[in-house]
RNA sequence: GGCGGUGUAGCUCAGUAGGUCAGAGCAUGCGGCUCAUAUCCGCAGUGUCCGGGGUUCAAGUCCCUGCACCGCCA
């Protein structure tokens, strides 16, 4: 029977749209899932959304929606984001699912029956505006930070979970299992916290104050505190208590989280589990934050780009590679477009892409594009190449389970470097010129093809699309998720005589600076750039042009913006409805523009004009004092991309 | 206020138990190759290893102290 692996992301709170933090956690979990599949484990990968609590009610109110409808909408955003990032989750749970609600009530009842829940009143500082309690330190000058008014002292009766009862047990458990919470810094943080007496956890909210939640099974007047509800998703999704999935996967459970939710996962959850009477998860994997640095690139372009928006620009696999290569799991890391491009160019285009490209090109040239047999006996460089590959596989197997993703990748790149050096030292083009060296050339090229194949397999958890592309070109028509490390990385198992296909560059270099282009033309960079600038011609590359998302749209609705002479507020259908504020009121009335076909810049950074949000820009051209809207020569459907 | 942590080349960071530890990658310069996405390979630098004190024959590496930044807790 194969081994089991169960990984979760947090269920994301639906009060915000998916951003890089969510994406990183989820991609890490995805890499772990794919890695364990590659090792032949039977795996289960869970993600989802957390939908109860007062913050959701607030967010829904602001959007003038019912909580459930609002949660539906944001939840769908998350669900639709993951396929775009190639996330291989098996299930997507929502805390509003009937199945989850049942399990939460089951566990509450069980903990209640065990005597670990009691009813008690407490006094606190309550802000009437927020409808919630504040602690002293949350207040600003003794006032509620949101409403700028002093909270009132208020008494409330609630249910409490006897968390303190499990404090000693938890300390012992963490000490007996050094990798229960990892990396170590977070384990230490939890232990430090546990040195102080643990307070019991308030796990209810009276319905008069908050009704958006799961009703306590033992008191209809209350709903469950959102954390107590949310954490249970990890077992409700796999059919706790009696389901097969639970029996099979729970013992292998690993939670992956960012450091901001360490306490609920490191303290609340294990004690809840203990009280409910089952064994704790195996690992809590805690990572740091991405600090977003606006790179020079973005600045010069005058736009601030959200990291996730870079995915369609630079490619998903480059993005996934960057996140896993750049962050040491557990520590904070910097995200910038510049750094992403640098990794893309240096590691993916130059090292990986180019190695693959030159290997296939020479195979085409010397062997008519067919995989040659091993010819001559291996020589020293051959053995070195193979040893390096073997060593990388070992490092890879050891590092990923202990969250050393960047080390696994570094090791793969050591093999790529060795392969590039290998080509240099054996110089296949020289061998090709000497008739007697044919067998030697066969061995050399075959070795290179084998290395590339192995690398494709190793990068599959990180860059599934690229892995599949590489394998397809080597005539191995396997899906990334069907690969098995043992079989598919075995040296020498390529089939002789099978055709390979060179294809397009795996990772085209991103030529960002004009200077780079000028260099290509042999012009001195500074003089050239300056000359261009003086001439008033700023050339942009096609890559840069492609970043502009120009789309066709039809104006559905228009109204004048009060107190503004120039602005019209438009609702434009570009496949979706967009609110756009356009400065065309001096020449166009609202009535005139409704129904007009327009072109809009769809990926322009949102802005507020006269307090009204504008998400895009309508293109127009001014000729003296006449202003004409840019449109298409023939009527076309809305939402088409201009190219 | 209490307790972690971090501070090493232009940038991002490795530095294990104190003695080839002063390093890697990127960026920069020079040279080589031509199969390749002007890619690859080789060579070359630069560093008061945050400041100050101490232990030691010997300290980024241990101790004390100051500064800066960060985290957790109050």
Structure notes:
The chain has about 650 residues and is α/β, with parallel strands linked by helices. It has three domains: about 5-285, HUPs (Rossmann fold); about 315-490, Isoleucyl-tRNA Synthetase, Domain 1, CATH 1.10.730.10; about 540-630, Nucleic acid-binding proteins (OB fold (Dihydrolipoamide Acetyltransferase, E2P), Beta Barrel), CATH 2.40.50. The protein contains 24 helices and 24 strands. The strands form seven sheets. Strands 3-2-1-12-13-7 form a six-stranded parallel beta sheet, sandwiched between helices. The model is unreliable at about 295-305 and about 515-540 (pLDDT under 50). The chain binds one RNA strand of 74 nucleotides through helix 6, helix 14, helix 16, helix 17 and helix 21.
Which whole number gives the mean pLDDT?
84
Report, as a whole number of angstroms, the end-to-end distance.
54 Å
CATH top level of the largest domain? Alpha Beta
For the largest beta-sheet, the strand count, sense and barrel status come to:
6 strands, parallel
What's the β-strand tally? 24
Helix percentage: 40-55%
Q: In the CATH scheme, what's the topology name of the largest domain?
A: Rossmann fold
Strand order of the largest sheet: 3-2-1-12-13-7
Overall spatial form:
flat
Please, how many domains?
3
The gyration radius over C-alpha positions equals 29 Å
Please give the CATH architecture of the largest domain: 3-Layer(aba) Sandwich
Helix-strand category: alpha/beta
């Amino acid at each position: 029977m194969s081994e089991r692996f169960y990984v979760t992301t947090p269920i994301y709170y639906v009060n915000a749209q998916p951003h890089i933090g969510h994406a990183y956690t989820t991609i890490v979990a995805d890499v772990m899932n794919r890695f364990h599949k590659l090792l032949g484990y039977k795996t289960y990968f869970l993600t989802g959304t957390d939908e109860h609590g007062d913050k959701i009610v607030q967010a829904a109110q602001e959007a003038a929606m019912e909580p459930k409808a609002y949660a539906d909408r944001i939840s769908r955003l998350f669900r639709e984001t993951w396929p775009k990032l190639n996330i291989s989750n098996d299930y997507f749970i929502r805390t509003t699912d009937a199945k989850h609600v049942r399990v939460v009530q089951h566990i509450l009842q069980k903990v209640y029956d065990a005597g670990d829940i009691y009813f008690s009143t407490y006094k606190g500082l309550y802000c009437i505006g927020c409808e919630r309690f504040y602690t002293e330190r949350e207040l600003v000058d003794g006032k509620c930070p949101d409403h700028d008014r002093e909270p009132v002292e208020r008494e409330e009766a609630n249910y409490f979970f006897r968390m303190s009862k499990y404090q000693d047990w938890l300390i012992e458990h963490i000490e007996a299992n050094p990798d229960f919470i990892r990396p170590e810094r977070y384990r230490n943080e939890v232990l430090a916290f546990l040195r102080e007496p643990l307070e019991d956890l308030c796990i209810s909210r009276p319905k008069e104050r908050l009704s958006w939640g799961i009703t306590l099974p033992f008191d209809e007047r209350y709903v469950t505190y959102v954390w107590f509800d949310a954490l249970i998703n990890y077992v409700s999704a796999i059919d706790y208590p009696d389901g097969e999935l639970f029996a099979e996967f729970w013992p292998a459970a690993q939670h992956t989280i960012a450091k901001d939710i360490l306490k609920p996962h490191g303290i609340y959850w294990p004690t809840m589990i203990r009280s409910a009477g089952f064994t704790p998860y195996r690992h809590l994997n805690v990572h740091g934050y991405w600090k977003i640095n606006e790179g020079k690139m973005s600045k010069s372009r005058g736009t601030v780009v959200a990291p996730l928006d870079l995915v369609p620009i630079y490619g998903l696999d480059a993005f996934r590679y960057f996140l896993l290569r750049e962050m040491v799991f557990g520590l904070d890391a910097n995200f910038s477009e510049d750094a992403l491009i640098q990794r893309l160019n240096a590691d993916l285009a130059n090292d990986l892409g180019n190695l693959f490209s030159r290997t296939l090109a020479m195979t085409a040239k010397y062997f008519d594009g067919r995989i040659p047999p091993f010819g001559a006996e291996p020589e020293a460089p051959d053995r070195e190449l193979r040893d390096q590959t073997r060593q990388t596989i070992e490092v890879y197997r050891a590092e990923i389970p202990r969250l050393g993703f960047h080390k696994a990748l570094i090791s793969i790149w050591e093999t790529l470097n060795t392969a590039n050096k290998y080509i240099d030292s054996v110089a296949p083009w020289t061998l090709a010129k000497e008739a007697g060296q044919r067998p030697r050339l066969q061995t050399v090229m075959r070795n290179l093809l084998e290395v590339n194949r192995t690398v494709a397999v190793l990068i599959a958890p990180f860059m599934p699309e690229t892995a599949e592309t590489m394998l397809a070109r080597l005539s191995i028509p396997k899906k990334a998720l069907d690969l098995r490390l043992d079989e598919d990385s075995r040296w020498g198992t390529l089939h002789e005589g099978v055709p390979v296909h060179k294809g397009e560059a795996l990772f085209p270099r991103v030529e960002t600076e004009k200077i780079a282009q000028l260099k290509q033309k042999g012009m001195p960079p500074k003089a050239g750039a300056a000359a261009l600038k003086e001439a008033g011609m700023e050339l942009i590359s096609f890559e840069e042009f492609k970043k502009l998302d120009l789309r066709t749209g039809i104006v559905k609705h228009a109204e004048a913006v009060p107190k503004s002479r120039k602005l019209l507020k438009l609702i434009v259908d570009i496949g979706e409805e967009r609110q756009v504020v356009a400065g065309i009121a001096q020449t166009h009335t609202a009535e005139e523009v409704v129904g007009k076909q327009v072109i809009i810049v769809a990926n322009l950074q949102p802005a507020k004009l006269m307090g009204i949000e504008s998400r895009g820009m309508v293109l127009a051209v001014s000729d003296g004092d006449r202003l004409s809207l840019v449109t298409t020569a023939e009527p076309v459907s809305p939402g088409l991309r201009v190219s």
